[in-house]
Amino acid sequence: MKRLLARIDDALGRRYDAQELETIKRALCTELLGVSALAFYTKETLAPDTKRDALLESALERLSNGEPLQYVIGSTPFCGLTFRVDSRVLIPRPETAELVEWVAQDAAQTGSLLDVGTGSGCIAVSLAHRLPGWKVQGWDISDGALEVARENSRLNGTQVEFCKADILNADSDCRFDVIVSNPPYVMESEKSQMEDTVLEFEPHLALFVSDSDPLLFYKAIAAFGHRTLNTGGRLYFEINPLLVEEMKEMLMGAGYRDVEVRNDIFGKPRMIKAIL
Fold first, then answer.
1. Most-buried pick from 51, 116, 209, 260 (CB within 10 A)?
2. Residues contacting residue 173 through CB under 8 Å, at least 6 positions apart
């Protein structure tokens, strides 16, 4: 065990601070290499294993190049569940978990819900797990993302219907009680403020929107909601904190009421709810 830990220190010690490095060590050893938590914490001596060593070297090379730990491990925790992730989908964030919690707290015992731009399926699967009486759908334009989402639904024992759909040109005969979405909302002009690990490895299709029409997806979903939400149906969005007032004006102008904004754990206005 000590040899493995020393190898990680040698490869990554200059790139990550002590706290980050400890997280990486634990994840690599217990999640990727299959070392037991007991062996990790007691620094138990491990028998030589060439396959394990090769796996570690591959992971260290990827991490040295800045690839996110979640992609290297191949999974990440979210809302008490485990989700497979790779470069086809965004890595689920804590802020999005807060959005899931808001939807779940408001939900009745039964209903129908659509997650637009489902990505890894983290929102749809988490809500299907929390709300077993609900019928849940997840839409995305990316075939790769839908493959990941379906695998995550299977792994977490949920029955989510995933469909390929472009919300900018979508229609449906279904009726919904809730539509939730974490659509692309980072403006192109904000790229310079983002971490290289995000810019270089996470899918831009799921992140960025033109500065000339930053509410593009929100407006499309709001219009779609007018056609498909039941009376009293609710929209929930994760939003760009820079566009809060524009979001409120857009939703009220689109005929929604009781618009409510909530801050995330970092104190930024990150979520919005509106009722039809």
1. 116
2. none
